[in-house]
From TrEMBL:
SUPFAM superfamilies: TPR-like. The lineage of its organism: Bacteria, Pseudomonadati, Pseudomonadota, Alphaproteobacteria, Hyphomicrobiales. Transmembrane segments: none annotated. This is Uncharacterized protein. Keywords: TPR repeat. It holds the Pfam family TPR_12. It comes from Bradyrhizobium oligotrophicum S58. InterPro entries: TPR-like_helical_dom_sf (IPR011990), TPR_rpt (IPR019734). TPR repeats lie at residues 118-151.
């Protein structure tokens, strides 16, 4: 929704809290909430959940995470979900409930038989990012981009993952073409704003943020991001 001035109202403000008490965990939660497993740049996942790191397995020459759970763990949740699309929907549902580990197990099960499944690779990356395994998440997004170079979801997720890893210059390199293109969405622009602000380019971030947000929202967002800078 936009105001009479053409800017998004506060309901679309991407940081809906004050700068008080900010830190790395808050930043991780915000950015993880922007990662996307669907077909648009609308978020469908929440913040990170601490969990044990899964093991790695080789799938047709690829190294992919594997579930390391017991009989009572996420592997049980895969049982009975036979259809691939149903399994992906189930995994997305787990992510929406902040359950990254069971989602990881389901996405991995899909990739075992379909290693180039783009929704599963994107979802795998989101689950890994939520678990703090950013290098592996970036590998998953890059696999998508190797298959479909124009996939904006994977590009967006890769940029956000690089931001989470503190690699702001690399993040901006990835996010700029998505955020500044003719078909760029407000969400894509604000993702770039986050990387710019965290890199220290407050003026540039403010200028871009004003394309979509009201001045007060721009100020609050940049104050919060400044407090989160490493």
């Amino acid at each position: 929704m936009r105001s009479s001035e053409g800017r998004e109202t506060a309901s679309n403000n991407f940081l809906k809290t004050s700068a008080h008490g900010c830190g790395l965990m808050a930043l991780t939660g915000i950015i993880a909430g922007l990662l996307c497993t669907c077909s648009s740049l609308s978020p469908d996942v929440g913040g990170p959940v601490p969990a044990p790191a899964p093991a790695r397995v080789s799938v047709e020459g690829r190294s992919l995470p594997a579930s390391t759970t017991t009989a009572a763990g996420p592997a049980d949740r895969v049982a009975g979900i036979e259809d691939k699309d149903d399994r992906i929907r189930k995994a997305r549902s787990e992510l929406a409930r902040h359950q990254a580990e069971p989602a990881l197990a389901i996405f991995t099960s899909v990739l075992t038989t379909d290693p180039e499944n783009i929704p599963a690779l994107n979802g795998l990356g989101v689950a890994l990012d939520m678990l703090g395994r950013h290098d592996e998440a970036q590998d998953a997004y890059r696999q998508v981009l190797a298959i479909a170079p124009a996939d904006m979801i994977a590009g967006n997720n890769l940029g956000l993952s690089l931001t989470l890893a503190g690699r702001y210059a690399d993040a901006m390199t990835v996010l700029r073409p998505i955020a500044l293109g003719e078909s760029a969405s407000p969400r894509a622009r604000q993702n770039l704003v986050i990387a710019m602000a965290l890199s220290g380019d407050r003026d540039g971030a403010a200028k871009l943020a004003r394309v979509d947000l009201r001045e007060e929202d721009v100020r609050l967002n940049l104050e919060m991001l400044s407090a989160m800078r490493r």
